[in-house]
Hints:
single chain; alpha/beta; 8-stranded mixed beta sheet; 3-stranded antiparallel beta sheet; 13 strands
Amino acid sequence: xxxxxxxxxxxxxxxxxxxxxxxxxxxxxxxxxxxxxxxxxxxxxxxxxxxxxxxxxxxxxxxxxxxxxxxxxxxxxxxxxxxxxxxxxxxxxxxxxxxxxxxxxxxxxxxxxxxxxxxxxxxxxxxxxxxxxxxxxxxxxxxxxxxxxxxxxxxxxxxxxxxxxxxxxxxxxxxxxxxxxxxxxxxxxxxxxxxxxxxxxxxxxxxxxxxxxxxxxxxxxxxxxxxxxxxxxxxxxxxxxxxxxxxxxxxxxxxxxxxxxxxxxxxxxxxxxxxxxxxxxxxxxxxxxxxxxxxxxxxxxxxxxxxxxxxxxxxxxxxxxxxxxxxxxxxxxxxxxxxxxxxxxxxxxxxxxxxxxxxxxxxxxxxxxxxxxxxxxxxxxxxxxxxxxxxxxxxxxxxxxxxxxxxxxxxxxxxxxxxxxxxxxxxxxxxxxxxxxxxxxx
Length: 442
């Protein structure tokens, strides 16, 4: 496949040769960035799509537009045993990415100077593709999506994102101003950046555009200037445009990456007392329509960040809310890999010993609107999950030993009640993917 680099892509490449992105020191490790690892772990979208836990050992993962390699490092840390492949149009960035992975001891990684549109030339297929903060810079996002789809395994998943035209419209206005001033005709340098700073600073503080986009404390950094005010090729999109692009590329939407922060019901004061029209219509509208309604009412997300994959490749599953008693008795449970860390275990034990609630959401805040606390008396059931997969039945048995008597009546707790209490705990945590529940399939 031969793809001719456009004049704009050449300018973008030159821009990232001058200022590599992201500017994170090579020695910095993401090991303790549990939320970042949670997003980049293949387990997360795979479970959302199939309600199954996937092993990352031996998987092949692509970082498309790897830049200086920090996200490639995150992908390597989040997916133990996976092979990491990175591509970028900037040769300088690719060299930094190689150095970064080598520094942190990841040998099963390779990097190439390559356009996304040229991906088939690699001759590889991928289980997971991460294309972060890149797709909106391509001349044609559908061609970019098609290129990634062509190298995606049948059950593989793509994570990518586009700038929101609704949330970011003021930055696009600023970029248009600087285009009119000739600051973006070529690759913006220090002189163009300084003129841009002076222009925004010189505006009256009452000017709406200045109030909404001028951040003097950040504007001192080249990375901020070039990724916001002077970003060549920057474009915005809406949810309907995302779904149209996916349809044209023959890809299927799976989920927003921060899916729990896109629920339109949460925008209303009382979800049980909606206006009659919304109360009747919301349950009937499509996922696309719900997401679009959200962005119209509350355009707070800079990125339209989503997972997608080949059509009709999701595995059918029975939602946990519909499980029978038999399903629960045979099911397995485990903590999300990014919760199974020594710090969380130590904190849980301290909470148990001191009879304090355990804030499980403090490690991964992404799926939670508000902090999620668990009473330490029941949170003790989670301890075996730090050692690996468990049956729910064994957790109930453990719970019955810990709390054999009702603390109020001092009567023996029934087996049925023990099951209900453990089920309630797991059912509470499953929507956040803090625990992963797998139903037994004969």
